[in-house]
Amino acid sequence: MIDITYLNQLKKFSLLVRKRVTSNYAGPRRSIAGGAGIVFKDYRIYAPGDDFRAIDWKVYARTDNFIVKTYEEERNLEVHVIVDKSKSMDFGGKVTKKDFASMLGVGFAYLAIKDNLKFKFTSFSDKLESFQAKKGMQQLASMVDYLNKLKSEGPSELSAMMTQYKKYIGQRCLIVLISDFLIDPEEIKSALVLLSKHEVRVIQVLDKAEKEIAVEGDYILHDSETGENMKLFISNRLRSQYQDLLDKHAAQMRDICYKLNMNFHQITTDKPLFDAFYEILA
């Protein structure tokens, strides 16, 4: 279950980042029509959560597709929170990786609402699933209820899902991508390249038991995504080899993010939420 008692601690943080962005959403007390400081920029495919008033009905009449107009202005970024819901995220004790990732997602949603920013929340495994956000702080309760009912399923197909998701992003924005990222670094790279024109925070969530193996002896390891089992004797040497591979994987992720000008953070589920946000946003 998701605990939201930490949200009150996040009041000191802000997502406000001033950049030149394109948008079909002009924020509070601003008209969607072009006006002072707002100029037509481009078209893109309509995505769930977009303002229906932005649909160009003339284009729809010609193409039978819902297309929205985007406008350019100086304003705060739109926030996209994307959380992994694949089966591997079910791993953990009292707080699973999925629980922790969801709490991070709710925290970013809270900050977006507090800063009067529009946000979208999407989960993924081998398919995308979007939460239909309403207006104002009351949507947090419905978002928590949605996440508590959200089931982990399927394998993580990050690159394919980001290829799909890219179609719904028609402007520069802040993207928060949360996963355990226990997949091939080349797939991670191909996914992140698709998002590279945006401001991206990449957050790897691991259970402490994954990062620091403390057991020894005969064990049966279960792959939650494939269903396969493997008998294994865990020795000091194997633990050391595993640690080297995990460290190498994290180093590759940091290098990928650095070259794409993205922020990378590795956080374990035993970390207090306030400390996690301090690390990510400080």
Would you kindly provide a written description of the structure presented here, covering whatever features stand out?
This protein is of the alpha/beta class. The chain has two domains: 18-75, no CATH class; 77-281, Rossmann fold. The chain is 32% helix and 26% strand. The chain is built from eight helices and eleven strands. The strands form three sheets. A six-stranded mixed β-sheet has the order 6-5-4-7-8-11, sandwiched between helices. Strands 1-3-2 form a three-stranded antiparallel β-sheet. A hairpin with a 3-residue loop joins β5 and β6 (128-131). The radius of gyration is 20 Å and the shape is globular. The relative contact order is 0.15.
How many structural domains can be distinguished in the coordinates?
2
Strand content: 25-35%
The name of the CATH topology of the largest domain is Rossmann fold
Count of separate DSSP helical elements: 8
The dominant shape is globular
CATH architecture title of the largest domain: 3-Layer(aba) Sandwich
Helix content: 25-40%
CATH class of the largest domain: Alpha Beta
What is the fold's blueprint, element by element?
Blueprint: E1 18-23, E2 39-45, H1 57-63, E3 67-76, E4 78-84, H2 97-114, E5 119-124, E6 128-131, H3 139-149, H4 158-165, E7 173-179, H5 185-194, E8 199-206, H6 208-211, E9 217-222, E10 229-234, H7 236-259, E11 263-268, H8 273-281
Helix pairs in contact: 2-3, 4-5, 5-7
What structural keywords apply?
282 residues, globular, Rossmann fold, 3-stranded antiparallel beta sheet
